[in-house]
Amino acid sequence: MKKYLIASALLIIFLAVFIPLASSDPDGLEKVAETLGVEEQETVWRGLMPDYTVATVENPYLSTLLAGVFGTLTVLAVALLFGKTIRQKKTTP
Amino acid sequence: MLLKVILAIDMHIPDGFLEPVTAATMFVVSIAFLVWSWKKVQASYSRSFTAILAISSAFVFAAQMINFPIAFGTSGHLVGGTFLAVLLGPYAGILSMTIVLLMQALFFADGGITTFGANVFNMAVIGGLSFFIVKFLTHNSPTNRRFTFSVFIAAWLSVVLSALSCALQIGISPVFVQAGGIAVTVPSMLMYHMIIGVIEATITVTLLTAIQRLQPTALGGLTLLKVKVKQ
Question: How many domains does chain A have?
Fold first, then answer.
């Protein structure tokens, strides 16, 4: 349990430090689509936090940080659950 | 409206960018790889592996949020496919990246739902399989320098091949055909990702050599590689 808390804390610090430094230029695929004049298509699902922002938080830094922390911890939890499905073996491989 | 540009992530194909046939085909292909990986993980991994799996998956999610600027007013970020593949081995690497992609699609609409199969193939499957490039290149001479070189090449290739795969998939969809199709999407995607790949490779090498120095036993993929890296 302790290692997960330490890892989570380090990842939150990582996001807090790097989010303000992140570039908002279009990425590879977006740039290509933009250059070709291909427009964004109708989406099937908009997500709970589109563009990594929490709608109710106005400060853009906090909004993205909250979304990032939520996503990071969710991935941690889901991967943990997946790990639990691995059967304990008598001998280690 | 042109693409909105906020902390978004390259190569995650949004809904509507693929023809339904392409999207469906990529679902079938990706599911086949996921079943294969799942079986391999259940057969050959121990449960003690859970911690490194969970923490590295979470790290890749966080790292993918951070876009760094590259040339021509565009940006890129770590994909992390080769990082996960060397750390976790190809099978758990594929599943780990799929978890990251699934959470991005579900919660942040980063990458579409209908295009999820294609995104899993482009990033999780190609990233995971880049393990075998490392394995091939390190085969005979597992020195430190050889390992670094192999990881660099594998990481660069994984990004470039993902971009190529993505360019082919979107290039045949009607949305892009009117703009020139494959003849335009392939060269432009390759151009950006050959640069993004160098950054990917540099970060991947830096991370893996640091982990290897601090905690040599943590590199589970290396055990699978049967590589003993000499200091």
Answer: 1
List pLDDT tens digits, range B111-164: 999 999 999 999 999 999 999 999 899 876 567 788 899 999 999 999 999 999
Q: Which of B104, B74, B203, B48 is nearest to A45 (CA)?
A: B104
User: Closest chain B residue to A43 measured between Cα atoms?
Assistant: B15
The class (CATH top level) of B20-225 is: mainly alpha
Give B148→chain A minimum CA distance, Å. Answer: 25
- Chain A residue closest in CA terms to B96: A79
- Residue pairs spanning A and B at CB distance below 8 A: 239
Q: How many CA atoms lie within 13 A of A46 on its CB side?
A: 7
Question: Is A91 among the domain residues?
Answer: no
**A50, part of any domain:** no
End-to-end CA distance of chain A: 24
Q: How do residues B85-94 score in pLDDT, each as one tens digit?
A: 999 999 999 9
Kindly list the residues from chain B whose CB atom is less than 8 angstroms away from the CB atom of residue A47: 105-110
ipTM above 0.90, yes or no: no
Print the domain residue range for A63. 1-8+57-85
Nearest to B45 among A11, A21, A93 (CB): A93
Chain A residue closest to B3 (CA)? A40
Residue A74 in any domain: the answer is yes
Which of B17, B75, B110 is opposite residue A41, by nearest beta carbon? Answer: B17
Give yes or no for a contact between A29 and B11, defined as CB atoms under 8 angstroms apart: yes
A8 touches chain B (CB under 8 A): yes
Reply yes or no on whether the pLDDT at B179 is more than 60: yes
Could you tell me the pTM of the whole model? 0.89
- Alpha-carbon distances of B99 from A38, B82, B142, B177, B200, rounded to whole Å: 29, 16, 31, 31, 20
